[in-house]
From TrEMBL:
Gene name of the record: LOC103110402
Sequence intervals crossing the membrane: 33-55, 67-85, 105-127, 148-165, 207-232, 244-267, 279-299
Key words of the record: Cell membrane, G-protein coupled receptor, Membrane, Olfaction, Receptor, Sensory transduction, Transducer, Transmembrane, Transmembrane helix
Name recorded for this polypeptide: Olfactory receptor
Record's bilayer topology term: Multi-pass membrane protein
Keyword Lipid biosynthesis: no
Amino acid sequence: MTPGQLALASGNHTAVTQFILLGFSNYPDLQELLFGAFLLVYSMTVLGNLGMMALIFTDARLHSPMYFFLSVLSFLDICYSSVVTPKLLVSLLASDKSISFAGCVVQLTFFVVHVTAESFLLASMALDRFMAICRPLHYGSVMTKRTCLQLVAASYAFGGANSAIQTGNVFTLPFCGPNQVTHYFCDIPPLLRLACANTATAEMVLYIFSALVTLLPAAIILTSYSFVLVAIGRMSSAARREKALSTCASHFLAIAIFYGTVVFTYVQPHGSTSDTNGQVVSVFYTIVIPMLNPFIYSLRNKEVKDALQRKLQAHILPC
């Protein structure tokens, strides 16, 4: 039985008004070191992604669908990292590690919105590469500004729908006693373990919808890139092949890291990983990946590197 079910069986029906985020409290000697490390990573996340957005918006040569999607990806990375990391930083230094019930609901709601939106945005980016490489003659007429905005809006719509389902799935359950969340933010699996009810249905809902919002975009991505790789292989020009592989490789690396960690956390049988392993994996997709994306795209993309070089020359070496 879970702690919540044990509380219900013992007759403890006190309604939970706040949760205690245990997070990394098992390592009291490392709190300041972890604070410094996470603060550094979060600062690099915000600065790196803001820098990427500013570079794309101010450089006319980057005003294309691919870089529009990349700027939205940077925005999403800042958003869902900011939902989690500031609270973690406070908890690492403060003795009070609590979060109100309403605060927990809000944190989970916005986290699921932005993570789900990023999943579908990555699929949109794969479709963009498919059209650019496999259907170049139709690219301009299909990937218009309106189409790009619609794809971003659809990503957020899927995010909002999944968030409403997942958040409702958790917080319609009764919480009547245990309130210690074995995580550093309000995530679904550790919250379900505290519920004072049978969570079999809730776990099934989590598994099904997590699979849908993860595996459906992943299928679109894999299908798109299968056609892309075939098209690249048929290119006669080595320079064109190198340029196409450069832009696709950075995208595919970001996808592999993101989906690998999300699938490990949500799309597997409940309880098959320990709390420690779950926290370590969560650190990657909530804190580390948002920092890595700007570096992945800038280091692997010649156009981004050229745009950055132009900006640096214009502002640092104006003469």
